[in-house]
Amino acid sequence: MADKKTHNILNRMHVQHAQDRENDRTDTGSFPLVRKKPRKIGGGIATRLMTSLLIVLLCALLGFGYAIQLNNKTSSYETMSEEELTRLISETSTQVQNLQQRKTELTGQLNSLKAAANKQQEAQRIAEENEDTSGILSGRLPAEGKGVIITITQGSKERIDAATMFQLLEELRNAGVEVMALDNVRVVTSTYISDTKKGLECDGQMLKTPYKVKAIGDPQNLANAVNIAGGVGSRFKVKFGADVTVTSSESVDISETRDVGPYQYAKTVE
Predict the structure, then answer these.
(1) Contact status, residue 185 vs residue 206, Cβ threshold 8 Å
(2) What are phi and psi of 139, to 5 degrees?
(3) What is the pLDDT of residues 34-73, one digit of tens each?
(4) All residues at 6 or more sequence positions from 237 whose CB lies less than 8 Å from its CB, including other chains
């Protein structure tokens, strides 16, 4: 009887074990299979785009902060150490000294150039004045100005001689005449008058009556030199029987000129 019960128990245990093994199989549906989810293509592009945008935004923020740091000089100076500030001040002082020295050099050069330019201009002005003065004195240039015009007719008693005519020129020189011409001859320091059979000759040109003398200078002094009692004007009238007329003018035009020849003995003093 006991053996029979034991055998029954073993049979039920065996059946139960077989049933449990059947239940433990994975294809029974007790444990559902976990399948791999498919990848979503659109979601990956969006993620990468967002990542790129975040990187660009971070770079922009970093650049903006760097720019603010560069523009904030006060803050840079405040953050510099004492040694750095001392070095910066020393460098700045050196640059200021160099610029001041350069300014002094350029100012000196500018003053030198101005002085040279003024000196050159002054020399040019003097040269032009001398050119005009020497041209008038030598008879190379025409001249005009106030003065007198003297007319002398042919003498009724005798022919006017060269000595008296030359005396007239000398009296005008003594009265301060600056420029004068006898007929068409420009009178200069080397001018001569000589007697010829045909009349008076001045610097190689025959003079015609009435003789005409144009003189630039003080009209009153020149007129007095001719009309003074007992002077050269009286001599023309008394000795030669000529009529002498002195006319003052505010504009005496002397267009007669002459070429200046080379000087044989005189030289310019340097």
Answers:
(1) no
(2) 85, 10
(3) 555 555 555 567 777 777 888 888 888 888 777 776 665 5
(4) 243, 244
